[in-house]
Amino acid sequence: MRRRAFLTKVGALSIAGTSVSTVGGGRTEQSATEPAYTILSETEHATDVFVREGGSGPTALIVGGMHGDEKSGYRAATDIAEWRISGGTLVVLPKANQVAIRANSREGKNGDLNRQFPTGEQPETELAQAIWGVVSRHDPDVVLDLHRSIGIYGYHESSVGQVIWPTNAEGASEYAKRTAEYLNESVVPWSMPLHAFRRGGEITGSRPMLVHRVAGELNRAGYLFETTEFFIDSNTRVRWTKKAAEDLLSRHGIERSVER
């Protein structure tokens, strides 16, 4: 039995610590302003999940707002939640860490959310368990986690900006390389060579981060996307993030459908 069929049979919502409230009678395709369901409803962590159906094809999950002070990630994800697609399914969790977002802080009440997903173990907090419940429910073929760093990788100490970090599965490394090339050729101005994107080293599941868990537990394609705030305004970061997401989704067979 395929893993997706198995998860459907046993019920992904039984994962400990999750609380999912479904709206709209179980429908999956929603309007731009209507979430498909809410995780941890009636708690301070309550946050919406949006689902877009474009017909048969792969499933992608996009996550923003793991760190509450990385506005470009959750702003881009919020815009992406309104996209229509042709082929496949697009699942978006735009504001994963609502407590941290409201506080404009990297961390929420239980510390760094993106350090609570150890491979081979239970996610460490109720919110991390609920987010992994979204992963289990939709069984995505590809996961994109959208972030922002202060500086640029290789130029500023402890910074990872302008990098696409792929998992070591299903061609993700090559796709990350091609998307970085596309961004550098068509999105980043030629006058900003310092801000050229690059492919990072492969993610293997060795750290307790969401995309690491996608690699270690699922062996699926996944990407940790990092732009930078160094000499870049917020709107530009959002635009670059959406361009990267659109290109990566396309390489995995999910095309954005632009309404005319």
Automatic annotation (TrEMBL):
GO terms for molecular function: hydrolase activity, acting on ester bonds; metal ion binding. SUPFAM superfamilies: Zn-dependent exopeptidases (SSF53187). Residues 57-150 form the Succinylglutamate desuccinylase/Aspartoacylase catalytic domain. Its cofactor is Zn(2+). Keywords: Hydrolase, Metal-binding, Zinc. This is Succinylglutamate desuccinylase/Aspartoacylase catalytic domain-containing protein. It comes from Haladaptatus pallidirubidus.
